[in-house]
Design brief:
The chain has about 170 residues and is α+β, with helices and mostly antiparallel strands. It is built from 4 helices and 8 strands; from the N terminus they run ββααβββαβαββ. The protein is globular, with a radius of gyration of 15 Å.
Length: about 170
């Protein structure tokens, strides 16, 4: 399985592998405290994001895990609007995904489009063999449940830290 996730695209978005150089623009994209309602924490400064992006870009210290992160660039206008990520368990051929779209770009279907594109990339022509894609979603987060459903994930009866596991296997493609 490749270490570099490679880019992918959707109808309106380019998903570009994360680079430290994106930190300044992403600090503005992610600067709304409302984005942390379900995840906790607070917006990070550009310097904090640069440090985080350096860690993420270095990759997981576990050789059996890949940290794949992409920023989302809206083709019309060329601005960054959010990110998607996958933590890949290589031996288990399983990827746990997440997505964040900045407040300014919400309500346009970008999260659904990006998550569906990510799932297709991971299960199809992506950089390695992933058989199962999953996400953990709070039961009161209707927007994330809608995004997961649009990406073909379905809720399971499994829970982790108060979040329901949603998943999709390659055979459900």
């Amino acid at each position: 399985m490749d270490r570099d996730p490679g880019p992918f695209g959707t109808a309106r978005l380019d998903a570009l592998p994360l680079r430290v150089a994106y930190a300044d623009e992403m600090a503005a994209v992610l600067g709304d405290p409302a984005l942390h309602t379900y995840t906790g924490g607070a917006p990070e400064t550009a310097d904090e994001l640069r440090a985080r992006y350096r860690r993420w870009s270095a990759g997981s210290p576990d050789p059996g895990v890949r940290w794949w992160n992409w920023v989302l660039r809206v083709r019309d206008g060329g601005r960054l609007a959010g990110y998607v990520q996958a933590t890949v368990d290589v031996p288990g051929a399983e990827a746990e995904i997440a997505w964040v779209v900045g407040t300014r770009w919400q309500g346009r279907g970008y999260a659904k489009e990006a998550a569906a594109g990510l799932v297709a990339h991971l299960l199809g022509t992506g950089p390695g063999t992933v058989r199962t894609v999953l996400a953990h979603i709070r039961p009161d987060h209707d927007a994330s449940a809608a995004v997961a459903g649009a990406a073909g994930l379905v809720p399971t009866q499994k829970w982790c830290d108060g979040e329901r596991r949603w998943e999709r296997g390659a055979e459900n493609g």
